[in-house]
Amino acid sequence: MTTENEDQRPERSEQTHPRAILTNPEALTNPSAEDEANAMRPPSLNPDEDLLEDFPPDSEDVDLVHCRITSIPALGLQKLTAVLRLCLRQNEISRIEGLECIAGTLQDIDLYDNAIGHMTRDLEVLVNLENLDLSYNDLKHIKNLEKLVKLKNLYLASNRIGTIEGLGTLVELKNLEMGANKVREIQNLENLTKLEELWLGKNKISEIKNVSMLSNLKILSLPSNRLTKLSGLDGLNNLEELYVSHNAIEDLSGLENTPNIKNLDVTHNRLTSIKGIEHLSHIVDFWASENQLSSFKEVEDVLKDKAELETVYFEANPLQLMGPATYRNKVRLAIPHIKQIDATFVTAN
C-alpha cells in the first residue's frame, strides 16, 4: 500500500502493532469494492474446531490470522483470563460481538481485513482498549467509541467512511489513520490535542483546515486528495513530516508556521517553483518529483544552506527531462552536501 521509490521513502516509522501502513495511499483499494465472485476465500470454520486449544488460559497474546473465523462468540473466548492482545486479521467476521468476557484485560484488538459493516455497541465494554484496528472492512460510520477513552491508536484505513465523527471523548488518541475512505472535510478533531499522527491519504479532501489546535501533531499525511494549496497549518509548530503528493498544489506558500518540518513530500503536483521553504532549516528529505520545476539556480538559492538536507527527488521535472545526462551533476553542484538524488546515493569523488 508502491511508488517508484517506496524503499527509499517510507512515510511512517515502525510500529510494534501490526496495522495498515500507508506508504502509498494512492495505491490502496477497498476490498469491499473488489469482485467478490473472483475472490479466493477459505471455507468457513468447522464448528467442532477449537482454535484456542493450544492457548493456555493465562495467554496474553492470541493470534488467529486467516483462520476462517466467521463468529467471535464461537471462539469461546471466556476461557482466556489474561489476554491483552487479540489478533483476528483476515477472517470472515461480519459483526463485533462476544468480547465482554475479555473486556477487563483486553488492550489491543486487530480486526483488519474482515467483513465488518458496523461499529456495534459491543465495542463500548472495551474500556481498557488502547489499540483498535478496523482497517479493510466495510464501515460507513464511526460509532460507539465514546467509552474507549484510553484509546491511543485507531486504524480505520480502507473503509467507506464519509465523515470524521464520534471521536470527541478519545482525548488520549495519538494516532488516527483514515486513509482510503470517502472523507471530504477535516473536522471534529478539536478535542484530540494529544494527536501526533494524522493519516488521511486517498480521500476527497479539498482544503486543509480544522487542525490548528493539534499542537502536538508531528505527521500529517494527505496524499491523493483534492488540495490546490497549502493552508490552515498555523499552530502546527511541532510538525515534522508533511505528505501532500498527488494533489494539485501550485505553490509552497502556507508553510510559514511549520519551521520544524524534516520530511516534505510534494511529488506530482503543479509546482513551478520551490520558493516558500527557505525557512525550513531542519529539512532532511525533500521530494518534489513530477512537477514543473526548471531552475537549478533556484534549487541552489533555496536549498544550498540547508545543512541537514540529505535527500532530494527532482526526477520527471524539466530539471531532469531537459538534460538527463548532466542533471545529477548540476544537482550536486547546487547542493554540494547532498547524499541522495532521487533513488541513487551520491558517491564520493
Spatial order of strands in the largest sheet: 1-2-3-4-5-6-7-8-9-10-11-12-13-14
CATH architecture of the largest domain: Alpha-Beta Horseshoe
Terminal Cα span: 37 Å
Percentage of residues in strands: 5-15%
Summed up, the helix count is 3
Structural class: little secondary structure
- Count of the separate structural domains: 2
Helix content: under 10%
> What general form does the structure show?
elongated
Instruction: Report the CATH topology name of the largest domain.
Output: Leucine-rich repeat, LRR (right-handed beta-alpha superhelix)
Mean pLDDT: 90
Pfam family, one: LRR_4
GO cellular component, one term: PTW/PP1 phosphatase complex
Protein name: U2A'/phosphoprotein 32 family A C-terminal domain-containing protein
GO biological process, one term: positive regulation of mitotic metaphase/anaphase transition
Task: Give your account of this protein's structure.
- With 349 residues, the chain is largely without helices or strands.
- The protein folds into two domains: 1-6 and 16-205, Ribonuclease Inhibitor (Leucine-rich repeat, LRR (right-handed beta-alpha superhelix), Alpha-Beta Horseshoe), CATH 3.80.10.10; 227-349, Alpha-Beta Horseshoe (Leucine-rich repeat, LRR (right-handed beta-alpha superhelix)).
- It is 6% helix and 11% strand.
- The chain is built from three helices and 14 strands.
- It has a 14-stranded mixed beta sheet with strand order 1-2-3-4-5-6-7-8-9-10-11-12-13-14, with helices on one face.
- Helix 1 runs parallel beside helix 3.
- The relative contact order is 0.09.
